[in-house]
Design a protein that fits this description.
14-stranded parallel β-sheet; 448 residues; 26-stranded mixed β-sheet; mainly beta; 11% helix; elongated
Length: 448
Amino acid sequence: MKPIYARYIYWTLVVSTLIFSAQSTENSSAFIQLEGEAAQAQIASTLATITDSDSQALAQQILRDCSFNVLQIIPGLTTPVNVTTSGLYCLGGNFSPSSATGGTAIKIGVNNVIIDLNGFTIQGNGGSSTAGVYNGGYSGVMVMNGSIAFMSSAALYFTTGISQIPTLFSFNNLLLNGNATGINLQYSNIFTIQNCLATNFNTSTSTNTNTRGFYLQQNLNGLIKSCSALYNGVGFVLNSNASLVFQDCFANYNLSQGFNHNGGTMDRFINCIANGNLTGFSITNAAPPATGANTFSSDVTLLGCEASNNNGNGFLVNGSQETVQSCQANDNGINGFVFYGANHIVLDNRAVGNNLTGFLFSAANTAPVTGSSGLPTASNCQIRNNTAIFNTNGFSNLSTASTTNHFYSNFANNNFSGKTQHNFINISNVATSPLATDAINFTANISE
């Protein structure tokens, strides 16, 4: 399903429900009701904060066709809130629950709810305050425009069980600071996460390797755009999802991986950056559960991504039929690109200034890849038009199935070990530039 169609369904569902909610009121002293022009003005203000132009245009069109007269305000509170009527809810002040039933500040108990934090903060205590907003299985829920901090479980914890119904979730314009996990989203179908920052910078959890910026498990059809994970244990943890698109996302200065993709299929990373982590991008098979088979990573695409200044590897790619195209690995502590598994396409990438090897096609369990036990030999890969310069080794084909990996028209220069250039290792079709006519015909690799 195309994202624009998904957004149209979402906003039609939400705004239609707002009309219905105008006829009912919330039976709780926690809410303040606005009516008439005041309600219309607040709703228009909320919808106008949507930065995605397509969604904004659709929302404004629906708004013009409808008539609103009720919404709910959540004032600054110290007690938890249960939302049991569909509609738009806006914070009217900072919200710091001293104690919460089930450890949750706001609990969603109905379909079709917009929570507009309205520039305010939900702040927990890092102990009994386990979740900022919790949703245990309701569809059509949006959270936007504010901060959630110091939750011991997750700022946003959304799960729908294993049925994977069309849940239509949307998270926009959020600062998530000092939480064990910023966004924990499981078993959803059709969702967007945009302009969200999850960080543990300068908090008591900044050295906790178990903190996670974004945790997505077994979701379908999602767009994650312009989101950042900084100073967490892991930036993005992605377990067994399918058809997710990560665009213009950053994972910087996390203690372990920037992007940790475990299993799943047809996920896309477009113009994403991982800088200053232990590993930049880790694309691997998921460990098998207590019962059942391994979850394999397949048909994952990394396009225009960059991994720089990571302490370990820039890109660690396993699985089957992964595509790595137009990516850069610069100044990483071990290798630029490391490949395990079969049938990968490696096209138009650059590896510059990495401490060991620019492009490593490895045998199973071969050092120097930390934690490589169980990773299979790289085989049947197509490697074309890539560049490796100023690494210790340029291209290294250490695979025990090395003859099945095909290297064409790659360029390597100034890759030195001591005083000896190591541009191509265990790769036979190498010519010396610029004299080799076969290189012009794209059949050889160039070593200068």
